[in-house]
Fold this sequence. Notes:
Chain A has 8 helices and 2 strands, in the order H-H-H-E-E-H-H-H-H-H. By secondary structure, chain A is mainly α. Chain A has a two-stranded antiparallel ribbon with strand order 1-2. The first copy, chain A, has helices at residues 3-11, 18-26, 37-49, 73-90, 103-109, 116-138, 145-151, 154-177, and strands at 53-58, 66-71. Chain A folds into 2 domains: 3-90, Winged helix-like DNA-binding domain superfamily/Winged helix DNA-binding domain (Arc Repressor Mutant, subunit A, Orthogonal Bundle), CATH 1.10.10; 103-181. At the A-B interface, helix 4, helix 5, helix 6 and helix 8 of A face helix 4, helix 5, helix 6 and helix 8 of B. The structure holds a DNA duplex.
Amino acid sequence: MQKDTLCLGLLSLGPRSGYEIKQMFEGPLSDFYSLSFGTIYPTLNKLQDEKYVSCKQLSQSKKPDKKVYTITKKGKDLMKDNLLGDASAYIRSGNFGDQIKSEFFLLLLFAKYLPQETLDTVLNERTLFLRQKLEQFKYDGPVPSDLQALRNEKSVAFIRGLATTLIESGLNYMEKNRGKLN
Amino acid sequence: MQKDTLCLGLLSLGPRSGYEIKQMFEGPLSDFYSLSFGTIYPTLNKLQDEKYVSCKQLSQSKKPDKKVYTITKKGKDLMKDNLLGDASAYIRSGNFGDQIKSEFFLLLLFAKYLPQETLDTVLNERTLFLRQKLEQFKYDGPVPSDLQALRNEKSVAFIRGLATTLIESGLNYMEKNRGKLN
DNA sequence: GATTATATATATCAACCTGATATAGATACC
DNA sequence: GGTATCTATATCAGGTTGATATATATAATC
């Protein structure tokens, strides 16, 4: 997804600074996508130059100033056009489309070169890690206000449910079939 | 995973040219990782300079010459060391670790900006796409000789089984819950 | 038999992105 | 008082991708 469209999409959930956009990527979005500061800040500047977002400088007591960006009508139109135009390309990506880049699967691919003991540890820790992830996705308590906008989206509920299902069936498979790696 | 380790790992399954390594990434490995020619060729040159692989120039009738690389003892040792050293880092990556980069999930996140009709089409095509992927992973017939080495690995059977399970439960979830996106 | 498309094979490079680093004010802790 | 951490913006070296170039050979199309 184009970084422009992505930033506009996140700003469509409410006005935000670059720092806060980064926090969304490090929170609930981290499993699906990420952008670095080196991309976010220049993108926001470009979007502002081209009037897709407006910017207000806020001086805060007790914290450094921040630049809060708000999506404009022109920006919303661009975002919708881009989503529509690229939708068909995104159908074939991710979750066994073309973007997984799983280093863990690569490690398993070469499992025969690991000592049995190491392989056992790896599989045990992977199980623990996935159980933690599962708890994260299932967690339904309060979240920092920055992330509440995301939490409120119907689509986020759908995606969290899907993620939960996938992790559960993956854990199940691992427990039943890990013996086959020896 | 370091590109060096990855190339050495693939060469450990048998001697290969850079072009053939790329073909592995475009075949069964494409769902988990990929490297471009711009990375593969320089990596092989570097590995050769440092004696981790040896190289034979083959002139073929009916095809251009190719450079076939073979992993050396020194190369196998390096690969094993690297796998062991980095194993713990790979536990937390991929399949709801930190590397998915799913553009499809992002598209769903902004589903409310798509016309209902487009969203329906997107979900239908996604279902078709995943069913095709499922057939690919389940396919057990003959494969091009380049890819037979991969097919023979026990670990590949494990990973194919896991992928099959994940796609099946994902499809199931989508069919049951797609109404929640409206 | 001429042209076009496609496959094998290697190589390079501009454009882009990340991860690291720099800067800076403020709070918290010991 | 020193140090660590959080908020906040910004820049940049280094690395990767996707596109492009080059070359040979086969197959298809016209």
